[in-house]
Hints:
The protein is built from three helices and five strands, in the order αβββαββα. The chain has helices at 3-8, 53-73, 114-127, and strands at residues 16-19, 23-27, 37-41, 78-82, 93-98. InterPro entries: Histidine_triad_HIT, HIT-like, HIT-like_sf. Residues 3-106 form the HIT domain. This is HIT family hydrolase.
Amino acid sequence: MSIFTxxxxxxxxxxxxxxxxxxxxxLDINPNAKGHTLVVPxxxxxxxxxxxxxxxxxxxxxSYRVAKALEKAVSCKRVCTSVIGLEVPHVxxxxxxxxxxxxxxxxxxxxxxxxxxxxxxxxxxSEFE
Length: 129
Ligand code: AMP
């Protein structure tokens, strides 16, 4: 069972941004930038392109809605996205509020307090449609 499945099943906590029957979005615990969010299908699958085309498009649709909320809640030049999965082999879309190339390089990390995570998640969540 992946760490994200444990989050989905409520075994470990997360800073939740959005959820429906098939997807959950929560803040990355070791963010590249303030507002770095992960969008995760509840059905555990390892690689993005192992998904059916229908499930892939559905994940992108949910990610689009989260990105729109992120754009409203967090000031940045643009929301960038990538899919990696080398650390957690459970499909997830990274949505990163980006101002400079280093924000999307997964080398520079920002430290946030619990209160900052809570406030960020609430503010992104309030913009989610
Ligand atoms: P990757 O699998 O390389 O796409 O990276 C996995 C991402 O998941 C990293 O950015 C981690 O910081 C993030 N991550 C790992 N565990 C958690 C967790 N419990 N809650 C939130 N984010 C996590």
